[in-house]
Write a structure and sequence with these properties.
Strand order of the largest sheet: 15-16-17-18-19-30-27-26-24-25
Radius of gyration: 26 Å
Largest sheet: 10 strands, antiparallel
Helix content: under 10%
Number of helices: 8
Amino acid sequence: MTKHPLDPLNSDEILRNREVLRQAGLLPESTRFPLVQLDEPDKAEVLAHRDGEPFDRRVRSVLCDTETGELTTTLVSLRDGQLVDKSVINPVEHGQPPVMLDEYELVERIVRADERWLRAIRDRGIDDITKVRVCPLSAGWFGVADESGRRMLRALAFVQNYPEELPWAHPVDGLVAYVDVIERRVLEVVDDRQLPVPVESGNYTDEALFGPKRDTLKPIEITQPDGPSFTVDGHEVRWENWRFRVGFDPREGLVLHQLSFRDGERDRPVVFRASIGEMVVNYGDPSPVRFWQNYFDSGEYSLGKLANELVLGCDCLGEIHYFDAVVAQEDGAPRTLRNAVCMHEEDFGVLWKHTDVFTGSAETRRQRRLVVSFFASIGNYDYGFYWYLYLDGTIQLEVKATGIVFTSAYREGSRWASELAPGLGAPYHQHLFSARLDMMVDGISNAVDEVQAQRVPIGAENPHGNAFTRSVTRLARESDAARGADPGSGRTWHVVNTERTNRLGQPVGYALHPQGYPVLLADPGSSIAKRAAFATKHLWVSRYAADERYPAGEFVNQNHGGAGIPAFTARDRGIDGEDIVLWHTFGLTHFPRVEDWPVMPVDYCGFTLKPVGFFDRNPTLDVPPNHSCGSA
């Protein structure tokens, strides 16, 4: 049963959406559903909603006719059972909807039937074509006139010697096929050079190759005899002073709605909506068969639809609450992802501590955090998205990147790749994420101050040279707010309420602490820099608009660029004392190590939101001591 306008779509709603579209005559046999999403109501409508009040549920679908290539978006009212809107999408102007799972198998069949590609495979000494796995990948856009408007994928290949073998150890390099999935044919085969296929296996679970499992690790048991400290009502969660809603979107994955913190008798809002709006993995190999490798895992691959079904004791430890996710398959029917989202508490060391020299008192309190997470597997890589809520009001996002690095044949002396194993390379690349943070710090009248440390030269005010201070700069318009991090100055961005102050008269706020790792390293004139313009700055701030959801635009696949944040902020709206959205770019620049093969240990990136003047004092003074470390 749907209780709230922001609850994720359920199976019945997805089926009803499909039936309305069928009755409207929009579902010939060749039609597929690349994407089906809840059409989330406007912020004002959600804030005005009261429990028990009726509300409409609208579903937005993208339809693709796999015979003609025609693209259509639809909007269905589930309350009225009616088609509300229908629009035809021009792929030349807007781009394509996400890649569909059906197309993976289709592309392998098409490529394996192409004589040019088969000749190139045989020329490499590979006679058994059934051992060659075709890897379809998003095509991007590079200004080639003959590719304009086509629905395309580009296909690399790997050798898989037996069904259980991981093929990533054996790339067939120097060869790529360009495929039109609507016309079902190979447009072009690029055969740049013949490189040896690496032979060493990468099957990391094979003890015959990598040795037996160690037997020295002793069990760790995590128990909460009295149960967890959180409560769950549908998709609403309450934990300590936190209150929020768990959402799930087939494109963005896990979404947190309406995060608020209980302070006295009032639930004080902090963030209205928090999600990963987009992520891009851009590769740095300029060779003729790899220059196009840039993947938008949300907009091109529907990150949420690729969520793992999590397993207790493997992905999550402790007293766990799981949320299922329901997504629409390509036929428009629902599919339930069991245990897609995991929630649990973790001890996180010392919260605060002091032993006083004057009074002899000694006090220690333990920190605890609530973890809400999901994992998605996109081809070779796996990503975990972990939202942490802390007792002191801190919010943190940590992304865990693992899986298998994308491989190539290694060319001796390469400037663009690392050697991982004999003859096996991994191109340099970045993983760049864009967090969309629809802020609501104590209300919707918010502004952003850029705050950083500032040296003070020796002078009349600083005769001994020991002084230092900080600078505070208000970002008044969208044109002011495309900003880079500066770790050397400790730059942070404070989201403050322009109408509310704490007991000292200071504006209440939350500070965004970036990691400050490199943004997009591709040349500014490159195709990827135009398509992933969001990733060229660590911070963008825009005025809230309900239809401005995606950092790289709505249709990312084969989009020519310029959509998303650049278009949003080109309006140069005022953002001082307004309803604002922060777009924060963070990520990893990866020069793969030999230790990243054959499976990569987790690498981490993320950001932190910390209260700054939001409370009148430390909000955790009421946390009791652990039973084993009472007050002294």
